[in-house]
Structures are given as C-alpha cells and as structure tokens.
## 1
Amino acid sequence: MSVSNPTANSVTDAAADKPAHQSTLTTVEKYRRYVNTSAVKGIEPLVISRAEGANVTTQDGQTFLDCFAGIAVVNAGHRNPEVLDAVRAQLEKLIHCCSYVYYVEPVADLAERLAQATPGALQKTFFCNSGAEAIEGAMRLARAASGKQEFIALQGSFHGRTNGTLTITGNAGRKKRGGPYGTGVAFAPAPYRYRCRYCQGASACTLACADAVEDAIQYGTAGNVAAFIAEPVMGEGGIIVPPDGYFARVKAILDQYGILFIADEVQSGFGRTGRLFAIEHAGVVPDIMAMAKGIADGFPLGAFIAPERIADSFQPGEHLSTFGGNPVSCAAGIANLDFMLREDLPGQAAQKGAWLLERLGELAERFPLIGEVRGRGLMIGVELVTDREAKTPAASQANRTRELLRERGVLIGVGGHYGNVLRIQPPLVIEQDQLETLLDALTEALEVISI
Ligand SMILES: Cc1ncc(COP(=O)(O)O)c(C=O)c1O
C-alpha cells in the first residue's frame, strides 16, 4: 500500500469518469467504485437484500443462516414484526425534531423502561447513535462526575473507532496506523483464562488479573483516575468470559480508590449472554453503563445510563447529539425491549447457548484444532490452535472455517487478538433446527480442515 504522496494524482482524480446518470453497474461494482471499503477486512462480498428472523437472503436468492446477527445487533431477530409495527406507527407521526431541543414521547418512554430494566440505581439515560458515541459520552460523564481525567482499560478490549474510544482500546491491531492517540490511560491484563500469564503454577485461578488493576492504578497513572472501563464479556477480543469473582474483586479495588466503573455492554447487552446485561452475572452494579447494538434490533441507537447523582454532573450545553434519541430508533427500542422481556430472550439465550456450548465441547474432543470453547448464552467463541500444548493461534484455519461454513449456508464471525476465534452470535430467536444446521455445517467444515 503506497502512502508516499496522497496529493500526487489530483489532476487525474479531477478528470475521473463520473457518469451523470445511474449506471448499470452491479451492487458489488458500485461498492468497489463508490463505497470506501478499504478499511474493512477483505472477504468475498455477499449482497444481502432481505432478512427475516435468523435468515438473510442475497440479491440472487440464496438464503443463509445468520449466526453473527449484524455483529450481535438483531438479537430479537431480523425484521422482528413487533419492532416493525412500532417503527411504522412512529414514521407516520414524527421522524426527527432533535430530541434534546424538544421533548419526544419515545425518548421518555424508552428511558423509563431502561431505568426499570438495568441493575441498581442506574436511572438517567443519554441517547446517541452508536456504540463509540455512547462510550465517548460515558467517558465524558465519568470525568464530569469525578473531576478526574484518567482511565484504566483492559488489554484485548475494544470500545470503538473514534479517537477517544481507540485511546482506551487495548488492541494494537485495531489501533495501528491511526495514532498517536490520547493520553491518560493505563491498561490492566485481560481476564483471559485460556492465555493467562498470571496464575501459572497455581492450581486454580487466583484472580491475579483483577489484582493487577490496582497495579495499573498505582504504577500506570498519575493517581487521577476517573473510571475503569471494561466489557463484561469481551467481544472483538475473542469472546473472553472473565473468571468468577473477577468484577467483584475489581469493584472492591475501585471503591478503595474512589474510581467509577463503566460497563461497556455495547456487545454483551440486551439478552445476549443469558441475562439482560452481562454484568448481572457478576452481581456488580456499574456506575455508568454504555449500550448500543442490540438496543433497537438494527435501528441505529446508542445510550449510556447512570444514577441521577452521576448523570446530573453534566452542566447545560456540555453534551448533545443532533440525531441522538431519534424517535424512530427509540420506538424500535421500546418494542424491542418489550418483546425481549415478554418472550424472555435472555432465558432463551441461556438455554440455547448451554445446549450449543455442550455440543461444541463434544466437537472439541474430536478436533484437536479446537483449543477452547467458551461463552455465555449466545455469545460463544471457539478458539482454534494448531498446537494445543503451545496454543499456537490458527488464524488462517479460522478464516477457512468461516468460508467453509459460508459455502454450507451459514454465516459466522471471526475475531480475537490473533484472529483465530470463531464467533457465534446469532439472533437470540434462532430455533433449535437452525442451531443443529450450524452444528452440522461446523462439523463438516472442521472435518474438511482437519484432513
Ligand atoms: C464492546 C464494544 N464497544 C463499542 C463498540 C463500538 O460500537 P459502534 O461500532 O456502534 O461504534 C463495539 C463495536 O463492535 C463493541 O463491540
């Protein structure tokens, strides 16, 4: 990739062919020509034109089982009928007026529901448009509430693609060629039991990774820490489930130092892990919780919620978002949450996920390529290694497995620091026969790859 002189082609650029009318190019050709995809990891494109439940259908009529759900977004299923009805009704009434300049009913109603559905004293929500914007806002609120500036984050974490969220993201792969980032962040080790360097020699987990949060505070900061931020289950980092007791131990350390806890539930929230929010598994209540993805079943919406005493730390004019709290997205969010709670999607995720984890565990006994199967609910990772003893990451095999699954009509994700973790995060409404289709396709793919 050449970066020598980005202005060198300005004459030819100006003369570039720009057809005046809509061309006969295919969707893929238009993407190549007009959509900036250079930042996206290259995989053979699929043009999706319809979706329903856990299925997506391409322009040329092929149907795939979607076990990635638009990166853990459509938890209540693609085009959930109740969400669609709510959206249609809202479209007839109001699309935008800026929900901060004027008040709108869907914002008030969704905020009330979130206050009821989230743990502890979390009460007042700020709505925005994406996960990164929610994290940025949460960071800003933590600073406003604490009067302190620094952050502790985790190695292996991912919090978004803006400058601020990349500053606290603990993954060089996501940060490369974009720095230098902001200052004022210290990283603690990921609670990653499979690759833990801290409990070696101990017969069981000692939660040394949690204790290392105190080291990060002591040795990596100026003693001016506003908040510790963590994903209750890491997503992009490779579906990393912390050991039992991790967040309780960390919270005790934070309380000792008067440091706030921001839970990044952008990926783990809205039923995915078997509870409405993944931090509930730990029995710890965060001071600020950031949400997005699964909040509105595919409509763009982000949010962060805090107890009144923290939320009210913003002063007038300090924070706003033009599109934040879009009435249509909020109407979708209300219908999504109502559906989720009534149908007990968290319970469904717990039960379906337990079944799938057990079956995947059986595959791990059969295929040495599988180093570890882990997850909570329907947030499942299968870490591939070429050598179980050395835990050598099998990234190319992970990509190949994804391709083989696709050839068999099943879509999954791949992630992890080494790019060697299969990510299985389907809509939570996925049905038993569809889970079996996934499993059969994965078994076949592993058979092919293990030859
Ligand atoms: C845990 C977590 N936080 C934040 C983000 C950023 O969300 P968005 O892409 O909506 O900005 C993501 C996206 O994958 C995420 O997984």
## 2
Amino acid sequence: MAASGVRLVLLGKPGAGKGTQAALLSQHYGVEHLSTGDVFRAAVAQGTSVGLEVQRYMDTGELVPDEIVIRVVDEHFAAGGPLEAGFILDGFPRTLVQAEELEQVLADHPLELVLNIEVPTEAILDRIAGRRVCVNCGASYHVNKRPTVDWTCDVCGGDVVQRDDDTEAAVATRLEVYDRQTVPIIDFYCNLGKLVAVDGVGDGDEVQERLIKEVDGRFAPGRP
Ligand SMILES: [Zn+2]
C-alpha cells in the first residue's frame, strides 16, 4: 500500500492567514486543500441533492446548517475523495457538532493533527481593519502598503476601498463569533491529543516553516 498523506485541520481566526497557509501546506505535502467553499461549489456544480440544498443557502446568504455541511463533506470523501491520499481542511469543522461528526466520517482514517494558528486579536484588527481592496479585480492592499498612485489599483486602475465588513467593529464581531464557536472545538481536539498551537505572527514564510516543523515532528510522511 502506498504511504498515505497527511490529514490535517487548520484552525485560526478570520484574518490569521489560514487559507494562505493551507494552500502552501497542501503544495508542500502534495495533498488536497479542502476549503468548505470549494467543497460546497463542487457539490453545487455536480447537482447532487445535497448540492441543491447548499445552493439554496448560498443564494440567500444564510449559513449552511451543520447537518448539511457534514453531508457535503461526507459525500465528498465517499465519492473517492482524498481519505487515503491525505488532505488539509480549511474552514471546517466550524462547530463542535461538525468536529464530532468529522471523527465519525473519517473513521479509520483519523486526523493526524489540528494546527491552531494563533494571532493576537490586536494584530488581526490591524491586518483586517487596515485592508483595502480593489472593487474591480479584488487585489488586496493595506494602509501601510498602498497602491503606487493614491487609491488606484496597480493591477487594473480600479478604485481601492475598504470593504463594509472590514471595519474594526465588523471585524470585532466576527472574532467574537469565531471565539464562541471555536473554543469548544479547541478543547475537543486538545482532549484527543491532536491540537498543536502555532505562532501565526510574522511573515507567511516564517509561519509556514513553523507549521511544517510541527507536522514533520509528529508525523513523518513516507516513514515505513
Ligand atoms: Zn484592480
């Protein structure tokens, strides 16, 4: 049997750089990067019954309920998804119920590690509240890293603005919701002995090195 790849979950506050790190780790380990959004879009594109339900929630902008999120992930794995080959989950599980169900879904391919990227709230507020994006192409800037000409996008010449949901108050609310939902998940994985906290302060490469060191230190892929 071929050596199986790593099976990881990345946790981190909104703005902690989780999506970026998940993408880099999936390249490093050659495993699939599964974000909830990707899995949802795939289910919708395939037009499965659960995909149609997801579509309904996405259309109305409502949060997809736990039970449906789990079914989508379950079907993704059941349909020859990357259980054996390994994966990195990003944005899932989001609630304790999802975390508990995920253990059932994975059964004899359990998670190896849950990496919690820790960034102080102050730093997140600075990162997100300082963020500015191009309304046209989505290119991302920061009050400390502005476009060359005023607030005109370097890439496409579009207007660079602050998104409505990037204000300090909106970000603080998002962080509160995140904490409320995530503290029980962190306890859950801590009790399973799978949780590792990684310092998420610094540039992306530094954080990436810390994550890889933790994974390689506890799980050596390819070791016979
Ligand atoms: Zn632009």
